[in-house]
Specification:
The protein has 168 residues and is α/β, with parallel strands linked by helices. It is 42% helix and 14% strand. The protein has a single domain (19-126, 136-155), classed as Aldolase class I (TIM Barrel). The termini are far apart.
Length: 168
């Protein structure tokens, strides 16, 4: 069985210190990780809302692994948003995605949490505040994304920038 992405061999960011960036593509993830590495800041790659439902855990695993290879000095963690779909969350847990966001019913959450523990996966039930949502820059290159994220990370503006996450 493969270990969770971000598990044993990977460097992960502490959730308390990490800046969350909503990524929609590999270019987004690579650009964000490169900027975070240059700024020496931990980062959390947060999938687009409900990406676990429509893109799936295989896509997210590949995206995170490729981004980490492109920016090996970045300190990061990764969360796949599965919305309130228990099937998507279970698939992500079985695929051993590092952290899975599930916002469904409480009774289902309890069962999923038990299964996630058995697989060594973190189950998150509250949508984390995202500092940046790169959705508006969907077709931007990794270099352009890196510049945008670097400006925000180095200018200290990150605290006041909000994404287009579910909490807005």
């Amino acid at each position: 069985m493969r270990g969770p992405i971000g598990g044993a061999g990977a460097v992960t960011a502490s959730n308390a210190d990490a800046v969350a960036v909503i990524v929609h593509s590999l270019a987004h993830a690579v650009g964000a990780l490169r900027a975070a590495a240059r700024a020496n800041r931990p980062i959390t790659l947060l999938s687009a809302p409900e990406a676990g439902v429509y893109a799936g855990p295989g896509w997210f695993r590949a995206l995170v692994e490729a981004a980490r290879e492109a920016a090996p000095d970045a300190r990061c963690s990764a969360i796949l948003d599965c919305g309130d779909e228990p099937g998507a969350a279970l698939a992500a847990v079985r695929a051993q995605i590092e952290a899975v966001l599930f916002t469904g019913r409480a009774d289902v959450t309890l069962r999923l949490a038990d299964i996630a523990r058995q697989y060594g996966v973190r189950l998150i039930t509250v949508y984390p505040p995202a500092a940046i949502d790169l959705g508006d820059d969907f077709f931007a290159s990794a270099d352009a994304i890196e510049r945008r994220c670097a400006e925000l990370l180095s200018a200290g503006e990150i605290e006041g920038v909000r994404g287009v996450g579910k909490d807005e």
